[in-house]
Amino acid sequence: MRIAIFNTVQLETAGGMEHFCIQTAKHLSGLKGIEADCVTMNDEFNIRYSKLHSLYFLRKFDQSIIYRESRKSIETKLDKANYLKCANFTELTKTLRQYDLVYSRNEITEAFLFQYLVGYHRIPPVIFGCHCPHQYIGAKTFHSRLHNLLYSSPIYTHLAKGATAFHTISGNDTKAIKEQFKHHPVKKVPNPFDAIDYAARASKSKRPFDLVPKQYNILWAGRLTEQKGVIQLCDLIEIVNRTHDKKIAWHICGEGELKEKVSSTAEQHGNVHLYGHIDRESMPAAYSNIDLFISTSQWGETYAYTPREANSLGIPVLSYNISGYNEIIDDGVNGRLVESLDEFSILIKWFADGNCLRSNIKEHIQTRTDSVLAYKQLLHFFHSCL
Fold it and tell me: What is the sign, positive or negative, of the torsion defined by CA atoms of 10, 11, 14, 16?
């Protein structure tokens, strides 16, 4: 069985979806009778695509965000799998025809591509993996509301109806997809994650930043965007620092259009440290010995890697009660879930004052993650779609 794992965006972008593509291709290619390759559009295409993406979000184009990882590093990670880039849609169609199955993310751009520029009928069966949230719950911004409108509309139904099946990751997306695509198979399988292996990697890399001695060290990591709750993060720092500025050190890792907002907050507060993008090889060491990991994401996630990563090193997680997180965090066991900014600040102070969760967080997350089983379920679903 030959599987093409397709993502319009090149793997050098090094986001969550790109990480999933690499890890899945590597694992499946190591199984008997399976070949799995990563297929994307080429660099020139992605520069044009990223410029349009930046224009849509009314932000300045930054070419560095699509070259966070080298091709050599990616090919090393892929092991037996190949990394193929296509210059145009004719080449893409020809490439995909060599496979038995195409697995693609569920972005509206990919659905448009398969419907009009490639043609579902010209390539093998397509499975859409719902790595893009189908609906942002509680979305308040123009772009998030537009996203919700488009993905629940007949437009997306028309563009994606040629897909053979859908792979979902969160409970919210599973429900939404089943309601919108009543005649399509829908299978929920969490993204594979090996908590034991991730924890072991912490000692194999150098910590990308130093902790502040005798202070409560808090880590936030992700894209510096409105979706990830960066405005709320800055507000949270302001609130907590009024009473706990001597006790807390804030460590923020990430890049994005709201970097200037975070930089301004760091300038106003001496206990805020901004590090920029941290590569995946260094992140296990970044979590090591941190006191608390926080996420201020507002509208839900399909699959949140960061809480599992933090938990694998025994670090509690504090986040809003949103999809993606509330399927990982058992409130009061491996973290806490909150409903408001005020509750968020109260619990940070509670943790910083020396209180802790009375559970073995490492053991808990290990019982909640089984990468071998997840890959097995995913492959079984692939076979059922042929």
Answer: positive
Is 217 in the same domain as 128?
no
Rounded distance, CA 141 to CA 174, Å?
Answer: 24
pLDDT, mean of residues 163-176: 93
- What domain range includes position 39? 2-193+371-384
What is the mean pLDDT of the segment spanning 260-268?
95
Calpha distance 300→297 (Å, rounded) = 7
Considering the domain architecture, whether residues 175 and 200 belong to the same structural domain is answered as: no
* Alpha helices, H only, the chain: 16-29, 43-56, 71-78, 89-96, 108-112, 142-151, 154-160, 171-180, 195-200, 230-244, 259-268, 283-287, 305-312, 341-352, 361-368, 371-384
CA neighbor of 172 nearest in space, from 139, 195, 202, 200: 139
**Residues 108, 210 within the same domain:** no
| Structural domains in the chain (count) | 2
| Termini Cα distance of the chain | 10
Location of structure tokens 């025994």 = 314
Reduced DSSP (H G I as helix, E B as strand, rest coil) percent helix, strand, coil of the chain, to 5: 45, 15, 40
* Cα distance between residue 333 and residue 362, in whole Å: 11
- Ramachandran sector of residue 222 (left: φ over 0; alpha: ψ -120 to 50; beta: rest): left
pTM: 0.91
Residue 312 predicted with pLDDT over 90? yes
- How far is residue 20's CA from residue 23's CA, in Å, rounded to a whole number? 5
Q: Residues of 274-295 as b/e, b for ≥16 C-beta within 10 angstroms?
A: beebbebebbbbbbbebbbbbb
The tokens of 186 are what? 């829908």
Identify whether residues 218 and 185 lie together within a single domain. no
Q: What is the mean pLDDT of residues 25-46?
A: 96
The pLDDT confidence band at residue 294, using thresholds 50, 70 and 90, is very high
Give the CATH number for residue 23. 3.40.50.2000
